[in-house]
């Protein structure tokens, strides 16, 4: 009897799996779907954002965003910066994708591979304290400060929205 129950349960599970994996008619019918952010990512301005709450070094944060299917964010406007701060608890400091590692004093900010012109340095920053503060973080009041890249801070990743069908699958565009 127990075996029979298991068999029936197995059949039902298999059927449900095939509905989604096999791309049956009900999944195909809604394939046009909607653009959405993957679960646990927050949507803003047509993009998806996720905070990494575990402190990481600047380059670890950059790698982690890629692993998560996104890019390390550098805000492109005050509005985007305000949104990023809302993802963090008040006054939390976090890395952004800006550095002057290549050439001291020449700051490069990138949103993925796109150059970002927006800057929001705090008064007197960047200081280059000690001669090697080469990575930028959002500091008090949303202003930026330069820090040693090997400090551990939180960070935020940004990703494209993905197509979401009624089988709860997300397809990230290439
Ligand atoms: Ca520097």
UniProtKB/TrEMBL annotation:
Q: Which PROSITE patterns match?
A: C_TYPE_LECTIN_1, C_TYPE_LECTIN_2
Q: Which residues form the C-type lectin domain?
A: 44-158
Give any GO molecular function from the UniProt entry: carbohydrate binding
Which GO CC annotations does the UniProt entry carry?
A: extracellular space
User: Does Disulfide bond appear among the keywords?
Assistant: yes
Q: Which UniProt keywords apply?
A: Disulfide bond, Lectin, Signal
The question of whether Cytoplasm is a record keyword is answered with no
Renumbered to this chain, the signal peptide range is: 1-23
Instruction: Write down the InterPro entries for this protein, in alphabetical order.
Output: C-type_lectin-like, C-type_lectin-like/link_sf, C-type_lectin_CS, CLec_Tetranectin-domain, CTDL_fold
This protein is called what? C-type lectin domain-containing protein
Organism of provenance: Patiria miniata (Bat star)
Q: What is the lineage of its organism?
A: Eukaryota, Metazoa, Echinodermata, Eleutherozoa, Asterozoa
């Amino acid at each position: 009897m127990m075996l029979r129950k298991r068999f029936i349960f197995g059949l039902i599970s298999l059927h449900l799996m095939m509905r989604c994996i096999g791309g049956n008619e009900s999944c195909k019918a809604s394939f046009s779907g909607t653009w959405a952010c993957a679960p646990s990512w927050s949507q803003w301005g047509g993009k998806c954002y996720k905070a990494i709450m575990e402190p990481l070094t600047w380059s670890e944060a950059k790698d982690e965003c890629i692993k998560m299917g996104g890019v390390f964010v550098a805000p492109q406007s005050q509005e985007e910066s305000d949104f990023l701060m809302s993802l963090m608890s008040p006054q939390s400091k976090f890395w952004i994708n800006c550095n002057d590692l290549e050439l001291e004093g020449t700051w490069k900010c990138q949103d993925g591979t796109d150059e970002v012109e927006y800057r929001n340095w705090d008064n007197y920053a960047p200081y280059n304290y000690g001669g090697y503060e080469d990575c930028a973080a959002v500091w008090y009041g949303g202003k930026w400060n330069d820090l040693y890249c090997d400090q551990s801070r939180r960070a935020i990743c940004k990703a494209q929205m993905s197509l979401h069908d009624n089988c709860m699958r997300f397809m990230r565009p290439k």
